[in-house]
Amino acid sequence: xxxxxxxxxxxxxxxxxxxxxxxxxxxxxxxxxxxxxxxxxxxxxxxxxxxxxxxxxxxxxxxxxxxxxxxxxxxxxxxxxxxxxxxxxxxxxxxxxxxxxxxxxxxxxxxxxxxxxxxxxxxxxxxxxxxxxxxxxxxxxxxxxxxxxxxxxxxxxxxxxxxxxxxxxxxxxxxxxxxxxxxxxxxxxxxxxxxxxxxxxxxxxxxxxxxxxxxxxxxxxxxxxxxxxxxxxxxxxxxx
Length: 240
What we know:
three-stranded antiparallel β-sheet; 2 domains; 48% helix; 5 helices; single chain; Butyryl-CoA Dehydrogenase, subunit A, domain 3; FAD; alpha+beta
């Protein structure tokens, strides 16, 4: 029998099944005693509550999931009992890798759009403002390449069988860089960023894009979690 709740569950309002990571042995350290169960979303006791979003509120993707006395057969256990943490790490590594791939594609497409917009916008700015805006554009351009290179380094280590702390670094860096790109583009466009139905080629410079990209610092492990991982596993800093 399962009881509990989970927030920021992507796609739970559309899913037929979900992988549920739950504690099945409360008497062992927290990273042990976790199991994975395949949960049909129509099981009695499962409640999905979509979270209101500032972008496209009519099509929410993030949800809260509540479990109240949910009964699932033992046959739905994935892997071994109380051995879910290792599988969870593998799942998260895969997810963060996909997040990196999507971030690279998204950043490079956005950067291309910004470079198309920048010349005419920069030319119209006063000289001092133009210098600041140009610096912002150059920084975004450099970061778009850095995100790609950081991911290459991490995946090269994984292919060789080693650990890849770059995964936490690239998740944190990619989401922050993509937010900066959205902010700089919206600032450059000024009032034009308020358009409610942007043209496809100018989506990078809209408030819709700027507000929507904040979810990237939550999905696949929040930025706060990534900083903790980097501090402990990369820098070797003590906990607490």
